[in-house]
Amino acid sequence: MLKxxxxxxxxxxxxxxxxxxxxxxxxxxxxxxxxxxxxxxxFFTPSPATEQVILTTHEAxxxxxxxxxxxxxxxxxxxxxxxxxxxVDREVTILQGSIQGTLFALQxxxxxxxxxxxxxxxxxxxxGFCLLNDIAVAxxxxxxxxxxxKILVIDLDVHQGNGTxxxxxxxxxxxTFSMHGENNYPMQKEKSDLxxxxxxxxxxxxxxxxxxxxxxxxxxxxxxxxxxxQSGVDILATDKLGxxxxxREGCKERDRFVLETCKINQIPVAVSMGGGYSEKISxxxxxxxxxxxxxxEIFF
Length: 300
Known about the structure:
alpha/beta, His_deacetylse_dom_sf, 12% strand, Arginase, Chain A
């Protein structure tokens, strides 16, 4: 059964400009239920992650400032959100959803998180709407508690997974692969194990060709026992921030290829949604919904 983490938490206060992109987290499960792709049994509500698990990845001084809401004004600005208890609670719960998702993925082959993919969070700071790095914490959970010895992170958000790259830069057990817009945020890139920077305006053919020529080789070389897939849909031509020109069908084909590759190679995969900032919320929800539809089609 496809298991999906969903943790609806109202964030207060949240400026109007941030409310629109957050709508997808409410609309996506509604759409999936309405069309019959999933039913209520597919969803699980995670509990908050424990401090012990958070500290496997994030520095204690940073976590103390987060939970006590004492980040400096400069640190708050870098996160992009006004700091609040409800925001921290949301991140801690989303993080636990990704951890629990890894266990479901080990059982069923795949699991998904309606949110997650907070790849701009570093060990000691937050950036780019990310406070805690759910992929990194969940990966460390597998390494420490589930006897997983090799992990591959496939980060296909339009923005480089700079926080994830920094966290695992000296850890050979986790291979970080990021294919992203070269001229997009963050302008100061970290060094992933493999970075592919794409020029502005990259379209379906070039995008998919690079991915299909790269991922099978990585699977052979890395021999991962587990995959994390950050499936941001900000690669779309309709995206306000993406700068690429990938169609919705191209994005769907990207997801199909990644999921089929994991399935064929019998590698459990945990999927997080990542970014999406198209003008029309329907473009964002439909592109994300395709990822869930494909998971059902390919794995179940």
